[in-house]
Design goal:
The strands form 5 sheets. The protein has a 6-stranded antiparallel barrel with strand order 2-13-17-15-14-18. A 4-stranded antiparallel beta sheet has the order 3-12-10-5, with no helix packed on it. The protein is of the alpha+beta class. The longest helix has about 35 residues.
Length: about 375
């Protein structure tokens, strides 16, 4: 036998051994795949939930605006500060046009002239009244004209002072162009800086938004829920909130509002809803936190259950396969209850610790 023949015989034997190993492994894997797998009927807690996606927001968020025009002269607060109702927030200094200043000065001069004229007339009427040449009624009418002229002069003076100085004193009250906090709470956002122009809030214009503030003790979850789930949700249902920035924190609430009108988001129909936060635990919530809310539709504790994947649904009935011996099985009708899409409650047909066959897995060829 030549060396070449011996080499081919050795190569052939090696190939044969490799083929035997591959075939043996394939047969072993095939036999393993055909082993029957089972699950055990156990008691578990099943919770049916609906998912809502949204954010944490204050219950009442106030946009602070000014009723006078001008420019921001001074800021007394910064973002994050806590203020009480009535605390100064910022000063709006008047920024009148030259025409407004001229008009205010001319109005004051006109009011002064009118006051002086009526003063002289009142003095003359007073002398005539003492001589009995005019009736008391005429004198009283002239006195009322004088009082009105005094008031007009005072108003014109105060208007000029407000335009030039930004403050005026009326009686014992100091009227200043200082915007004060309308509520007690935190400054969430500041929209202006020193020197920025301020447009006043009137009946025909929205005015410049100076800042936003809110009482952070009252927070709610605002989000949306899919139209598939909205029919199962009712106001008052409990909810568990998962805050993206605070993993593991236990935040509880309840559904307080479900919108009657849907809206479109990414070609999906959703319904807005609100969840009142009842318990934050140790979590420190901030406005704007993104969050998911699991709304508890139904919950059952310690009930018989099996994985929903082992059940065959047919004609509105549920069936499972019960193993008999090593190779046989029988189909059994069961009555099911609450499901969370993974685990399902078994009301009738099975006992605790009983074995149920998994469905056979068919290889895709």
């Amino acid at each position: 036998m030549t060396k070449r023949s011996k080499r081919w015989i050795i190569i052939s034997m090696i190939i044969l051994v490799v083929l035997c190993i591959v075939i043996f492994a394939a047969l072993k894997g095939k036999n393993k795949n055909h082993e029957r797998r089972t699950v055990t009927v156990v008691k578990a807690t099943i919770v049916d939930k609906a998912l809502a996606v949204g954010n944490i927001e204050p219950l009442n968020e106030i946009a602070v605006k000014s009723k006078i025009s001008g420019v921001v002269g001074q800021l007394f607060i910064t973002v994050g500060d806590f203020v009480h109702a009535g605390d100064p927030l910022l000063e709006v200094r008047p920024d009148p046009t030259p025409l407004e200043i001229v008009e205010a000065k001319r109005n004051l001069e006109r009011a002064k002239i009118e006051l002086d004229n009526i003063q002289r007339e009142l003095n003359r009427y007073e002398g005539l009244q003492k001589k009995g040449l005019i009736a008391d009624q005429e004198f009283e009418n002239k006195r009322r004209e004088y009082d009105q002229a005094v008031l007009n002069h005072q108003i014109a003076k105060e208007r000029l002072d407000l335009l030039e100085k930004g403050r005026v004193k009326i009686a014992d009250a100091n009227i200043e162009t200082v915007i004060k906090a309308p509520i007690t709470g935190y400054i969430l956002e500041k929209s202006v800086n020193v020197g920025d122009p301020v447009v006043p809030l009137t009946s025909y214009q929205a005015g410049t938004e100076l800042m936003k503030m809110a009482d952070m003790t009252d927070l709610i979850f605002k989000g949306t829920v899919d139209e598939i789930d909205v029919g199962k949700i009712k106001e008052g249902m409990p909810a568990e909130l998962q805050i993206g920035a605070l993993p593991g924190k236990d935040v509880q609430g309840h559904v307080s509002l479900i919108s009657l009108k849907a809206k479109k988001e990414d070609n999906t129909t959703v319904f807005p809803l609100e969840i009142t936060i009842d318990e934050t635990g140790e979590a420190v919530l901030r406005a704007g936190f993104s969050a998911n809310a699991n709304i508890i539709i139904a919950k059952k504790d310690s009930v018989l259950s099996v994985p929903e994947r082992v059940i065959t649904f047919r004609n509105d009935s549920a069936f499972v396969q019960i193993p008999i011996g090593e190779k046989e099985s029988e189909e059994r009708y069961i009555k099911t209850g609450l499901s969370d899409a993974i685990t399902i409650e078994v009301i009738e047909g099975l006992d605790e610790e009983q074995e149920v066959l998994e469905k056979e897995l068919h290889e895709i060829t």
